[in-house]
Amino acid sequence: MKRILITGALGQIGSELTLKLRDLYGADNVIATDIKKNDSEAAHSGPFEILDVTDANRMVEIAKKHKVDTVMHLAALLSATAESKPVFAWNLNMGGMLNALETAREVKAQFFTPSSIGAFGPSTPKDNTPQDTIMRPTTMYGVNKVAGELLADYYYHKFGVDTRGLRFPGLISYVAMPGGGTTDYAVEIYYEAVKNRRYTSYIDKGTYMDMMYMPDALNAIVDLMEADPSKLIHRNSFNVSSMSFDPEEIAASIAKYIPGFKISYNVDPARQNIADSWPNSIDSAAAKEEWGFKFDYDLDKMTQDMIDKLRQKMQ
Ligand code: AKB
């Protein structure tokens, strides 16, 4: 039976991952932590501890107190926020990562952390970006992600920590809003479509980025963590994506379910710059071959589910 410590458990991924893991492994076996408590289900459906991930001692103390055998480190600043506060981002993203890896080493735990399509940069091949390729990101977030991938591989080779990671695309969900990401437009657009039948996009038409619906992302985390280690050639981190679209294409998909939906543009140069430095679409072949990555949702199936769920939520 697993005993899992999650950092950033009340964030965009954590709010849903915590509940899924509690369903799979038992509520008491999933220890949610975050810098503040809120009134979400993730904070109240099982053990919860306040944790600032830059506090190394406290992280180890919580891991020992709850006898965890798995650390899932989700706490991090996303790309647009990291770009506006680069020094803070370095300290939080890299400090948190080092502390989480050290915790995993000390308590002999398996380790997961998300990387991102943000780990790639303008000199990376843009289409069908391979698993192993040029990684020279031009954002602080990307620098943190590449350094984090290397550090996680280092902990595997040097100390034998069972580290695993996924390069996530933009994640879309109706549960918790992302905060400070470049791909957030693809979440906001659904909220605005259901409320106002229109959306003003800060990302320009023609800008393609990879995306994935949250249920597929959560399944990918569980499948990777349960994968047979002898099959893993890569570890930190695997390309995974289930769709790639630009704002026009997501708007056209929404218009199939919300007739009259209109998109307009007011491009934010800061976030557009970040988006322009990322791939159009990445190749998930290594994840498929090494641990059977699969997904259920394409753009239209996701759109239909997002709209249904948001209508119920906003009633
Ligand atoms: C962001 O936009 O910063 C994230 C990501 C793709 O890593 N959603």
TrEMBL record:
Q: Which residues form a coiled coil?
A: none
Domain NAD-dependent epimerase/dehydratase residue range list: 4-227
Q: Report the superkingdom from the record.
A: Bacteria
Q: Which family does it belong to?
A: Belongs to the NAD(P)-dependent epimerase/dehydratase family.
Protein name, UniProt field: L-threonine 3-dehydrogenase
Native source organism of the sequence: Neobacillus kokaensis
